[in-house]
Amino acid sequence: MPLLTPSSAEELAETLREAASKSQTITALGANSKRLMAGPLLPSDVTISTSKLRRVLQYEPNDLTVSVEAGMPFAELQKLLAARGQMLALDPPHSADATVGGVIATNSSGPVRRAFGTARDLVIGMTFATLEGKLVKTGGMVVKNVAGLDMSKLMIGSFGTLAVLTSVNLRVHARPAETRAFFFCSSDLESALEKRAAVLRGVLQPLAVDLLSPAAATRLGTRGFMLAVRAGGSPTVLARYARELPGSETLTGDRDAQFWNQMQAFTPDFLRRQPGGIVLRTSTTLSEIGDVFRLVTGACISRAASGVSYIYVTSWQAVAPIWKAATERGWSAVVEYAPEEIRASKELWLLSSDGGEPAAFAMMKKVKQMFDPSSLLNRNRLYGRI
What we know:
Layout: E1 3-4, H1 9-21, E2 26-29, E3 46-49, E4 56-60, E5 65-69, H2 74-82, E6 86-87, H3 100-105, H4 113-116, H5 119-122, E7 123-129, E8 135-139, H6 149-155, E9 164-171, E10 173-174, E11 178-186, H7 189-201, E12 208-212, H8 214-219, E13 225-233, H9 235-244, E14 249-252, H10 253-264, H11 266-273, E15 278-283, H12 289-295, E16 299-303, E17 308-313, H13 319-329, E18 332-337, H14 340-345, H15 360-371
Parallel strand pairs: 1-3, 2-3
Antiparallel strand pairs: 4-5, 5-9, 6-10, 7-8, 7-9, 11-13, 11-14, 12-13, 12-16, 15-17, 15-18, 16-17
């Protein structure tokens, strides 16, 4: 299949239109860093890469906004913003290789979602190309502008199954003057959960609050259940954290940055070390995070202020008890990463408790029909093999 690399949004839109007019199936990608994520792509007639769409379209440091083309490397954008003391408050896995568009299209996030949310909280506008060859703009370059917000939300996390992002307008934040990691290690889960509850009840507003199982903590050089808290701010603010979190160990400067870089890269590092590895993501209430940890014997990391947990297993057999528990307790669960042979042959998304399709799937099919009635674009990536 030919690889096409349009050099402008208009050229990309025309390429989509031409392929669709011939009923050609299409793969759209950025850096292809998420190739082990979600459903496997089916072979296609045409592959379109956004790799040449990498310009900064507009940057307003005083307004805390930036607009970039979708193919811009994520790390390059962060470097650009860092030069002005700013950042895009997303720390997704694969950030060293990913494009901005890929991060948004997969709704990838990391530890700092505790303070800043996910892409849905940071995208203020976008432009995407449809199979009709149209360029559709939503939102704007003003943070309070909510025009077209729902359309943007449709595209975030759609894995390119509806349209292809050509540019994204983003809200940025000032980089903290200083950051520091505070962590607690305990031999028993209940103590770690109590410490987490105390942090969440307190007046502090950490950048990140993550809970790690012993197997996950071991990979980072510590032992037992570990609660990791990242704080940011002035020396006065960090001194307040130290007073409010007595008994914690701390990491500062390069050691703090190294620790959180390891946290951000935990998933790609696991997949590199375990070529047959599987990563499941569950979403529960905060009070049920303990149940997730009691269920697993291997590595598990919870974004402990949001209820999102990542479970790392080395075989499909290990998925069954997690699926069973999630079904019985009404959790949301999905296989986020797995080898291609598993993604091609197994159900990656948890069905409803009665074994049927979730109610939202009917709406998903309607939206897919609106944008891609012939199912040509990035087939097979989402629930129900959309």
